[in-house]
Amino acid sequence: MKNVLLGVTGGIAAYKSAELIRLLRQQNYDVRVVMTDSAMEFITPLTLQALSGHAVHTKLLDASEENAMGHINLARWADILLIAPATASCIAKFAHGLADDLLSTLYLAVQCPVYIAPAMNQAMWHKTVTQENIAQLIMHQVTLIGPEAGSQACGEIGLGRMTEASDIVAALDAPEQLLLNKKILITAGPTREPLDPVRYITNRSSGKMGYALAIQAEKMGAQVTLVSGPVALEKPSNIAFISVETAAEMYTVVMQQVSEQDMMIAAAAVADYTPATVQADKIKKQGDESILALQKTQDIVASVAALKDKPFTVGFAAETKNLEHYAQEKLQRKNLDMIAANWVGQAEGGFDSALNALQVYWPEGTKNLAMCSKNELANQLLTLISERYNAKNSA
Asked: What are the start and end residues of each CATH 3.40.50.10300 domain in the chain?
């Protein structure tokens, strides 16, 4: 959990801070709020206290603080300082190092990353002095989020609208470029093994974990190729996408693509068996029992890991019992660099869920990744994969 210190200044966009707090907490941030005097003219501290779960800070010199140094205590607590909305006035203060209230003093005292989401009239935004102040803050390593163009409260149209709360949260969540220029092949979703023109064998995989890995890997700077079985998910942008249906089709595509890859993450739930014969016509109901002949499919991740110049290969194991035993056995038998194992059939997490948890194994160790959203879990797993990849290639 990261600590976000949210500074709210005096503009009409201050009302958006309520939604911003809600979304930040939804993403598991701990949020504390600092308001300027003018911000309290637009939205009450009580509203933001109720949403954040913490008392709102408004005074520079607060005798209720243990050492009367509230600004220092808050500055040390914060992992991120976010100013939203950031008015022209507060931007000018920050740019010139003025510290005449709690928020401007905090800006000087924090040692964490600082983000600002400007909000002002379009003429104020375009004013030369405002642009000079913005340039000064960027030179001081402050990250700018927005502003956006559109209609404004004053009735004018142009740049100056505060970026929407969801986009601000997305900007904070942007991961480090740990996989910059790395080529990664990711498989996702189930496969469908046809019995006849109507029926097929498949499994409960939704593809959400594989898609989350592809999206997060692209955000980390990777060149991603996603090979997907049939899922009800939107095709990710900025990612090379190949759609397949059967295990045989996925095998063929992966083996065609894999020689160009630095890493391969096999998140797909590939069918272990496929019908020995696919009937040309619909199989009609006959008798009380029917015997179905199946044959093994080719093991995709094991085939990749057996290559002479294999990429860093990560497998997945979905288990209903003996998770560690089966995961460790697959890691060794298939010659994998890592394996991410998760329980399925539990109360929450796993197949067809927005949540998941993983126990990750590699030859020298293991790490538990606790239950969280699949997007956050993908971020954690890719960070771990990056660490192990770098360790292997620097040895």
From this structure: 183-394
CB neighbour list of residue 375: distance below 8 Å, 6 or more residues apart: 212, 215, 216
Distance CA 272, CA 294 (A): 10
Alpha helices in 140-181 (DSSP H): 165-173
What's the pLDDT at 68?
Answer: 45
Q: How far apart are CA 158 and CA 114, in angstroms?
A: 25
- 154 in active site: yes
Q: For 293-323, give one letter per residue: b (16+ CB within 10 A) or e.
A: eeeebebbbbebbeeeebbbbbbbbbbeeeb
Share of the chain above pLDDT 70, in %: 93
For residue 81, which of 22, 34, 19 has the smallest C-alpha distance? 34
Give how far Cα 146 sits from Cα of 118, 156, 159, Å.
Answer: 7, 18, 9
pLDDT tens figures, 301-320: 999 999 999 999 999 999 98
The packing angle between helices 70-77 and 102-109, to 10°, is 50
Q: Active site residue: 90, 112, 154, 372, which one?
A: 154
Question: Domain 3-173 maps to which CATH number in 3.30.420.40, 3.40.50.1950, 3.40.50.2000, 3.90.980.10?
Answer: 3.40.50.1950
Assigned architecture for domain 183-394:
3-Layer(aba) Sandwich (3.40)
The β-bridge partners of 159 are 149
Q: What order of strands is seen across the sheet that includes strand 223-228?
A: 240-243, 223-228, 183-188, 263-266, 312-319, 338-343, 355-362, 365-373
Q: Which of 38, 35, 28 is nearest to 49 (CA)?
A: 35
> Which residues of the chain does CATH 3.40.50.1950 include?
3-173
Q: How confident is the model at residue 2 (pLDDT cuts 50, 70, 90)?
A: confident
Q: Is the peptide bond before 311 cis (omega within 30 degrees of 0)?
A: no
Provide the 8-state DSSP code for 109: H
State how far the Cα of 117 lies from the Cα of 115, in Å rounded to an integer.
7
pLDDT tens per residue, range 66-84: 444 456 788 889 989 999 9
- Statement: the pTM of the whole predicted model exceeds 0.70: no
